[in-house]
Amino acid sequence: MMLFARESAVEFAVNAPYKVEPRSRVFKDMAPPVGGMIQFSMIVPPAVQWTAFLARMDRKGRGAALAAAFLCLVARWRAVEPRYNSESTRRCIDWLWAVVAMVLAVSLATATHADDVPKHQVPWLLGDLSGYRTTLLEKGIDIQLVYVTESAYNAVGGTGQLADYTGQVTVGTTFDLERILGMHDATFEVTYTERAGRNLSDDANLGTFQLVQEVWGRGQTVRLTQMFFEQKYFDKIVSWKAGRTSMGSDFAVFPCDFQNLTFCGSQPGNVVGGYIFNWPISQWGSRVKVNLDGFGYYQVGVYDQNQQYLGYDNKLWPVWYWGSTGVLVPVEVAWEPNFFGKLDGSYKFGGWYSSGQQPDAIYDKFGNPFAISGQLPAIRAGLYGGYVSFQQQITRTSAEDPKRGLRLFFNAAFADTTTSSTDRQIAGGFWYTGPFAARPDDVIAFAMGTTHQNERITQVASLENLLGLGPVPVKDSEYVFELDYTFVPKPGLIIRPNLQYVYSPGGNYATKDVFVLGLKTIISF
User: Which of 38, 60, 246, 308 is the 20 to 30 Å CA partner of 374?
Assistant: First the structure.
């Protein structure tokens, strides 16, 4: 099958027609290859051929072939439907759906060949590099090099159909100071990130509260993301961490498996990003964590509050910026049960208080709505909020692999309404890991969530319209749904096609709903 796929790919690459487009609106700011841009609609026929070949090779693979071929046919139908009749739109739809089709085809077809899949491999695309990686680990040096890409196309919604790409390169090193210097249970970690690309939410004017490409943002540039020292004491009961880090690295921690920002990272930073900075921003701070045997843990942190961490001056160096406005103090307690000795869970309860300053959400310094008075907002101090983050494994389908099975999650974060433009975010969903015997690392995931605008801002907008100062959009809640399939063709490579639907983008019921086809890849070298 792989030989046939390679031959088809080579034949397609050689014979595919080219069209010269000086400036395609598909994949903005990406230069076309020499000779022009490949017509990606040509990918679909080879995809159908490959899936037909799978069916011929194995009768049990016919279901995979039919599923993939069906998706390809859907892509072709959408491409010729009148509302999607532009050439660039057809190319992008064909390309995205062909990727989804091939991922499903390969994953389903290989589900009948469990004996052919090697297990427990090293988690790097380049492997162990002939033992050099293991040698470095034995000497206390762990190097991380990860490349994340997120592509998105708004098939519905926005002011026009576009496809955008954004990505992030992460380069980091963790030094085991016990191996290197003899410091017991101590590590030192340094991480740099570089972000580049475009943001579909802005380019297509989707009007959403949350990004449809979570890896975009906080400046498309290189910056210091982490530089901290951590040591554990009293037989690892107490852990102390200090340096350039962030609240979201330790509090309300949640993985960025999904592509929509509603379901990615520490929720407080999604709700009040004006003063709580998630990855890739770091700030000077410290955290103390106490592990409670048989229960979970308790932790408290303190972080410097300064808007200059968002800037570009000295972004590569661990400088301490002048002009700090206060400190951010989060606390968290977690219960970590293990039901029946095999179903683990995590139930986090937390909150935060900041002595920093932020503009009032609606009032000026005279107590009048600044949207009506035209005055500057009043400045408030004493910002706060709370959150919960739950995860629980419900089923376990493999005695040897504890991660396989169904896992549910629920997240909720609430912020004070004095300064917050969005005051709450609630999300829930599931992951099902190892849906097929031969694909123990593949994951089917679904999530739904909502982000709510501060009701005080909504009331002022209604007042502006009543006074004839509008029209001003009256916003409420945005609702997001995302369906993912994670395909792991080999260790170190993750391919994750996804579908996103946004109802009432930006909490504005008058804004057209958004349907996004996304593709996320993660490469760990």
Answer: 308
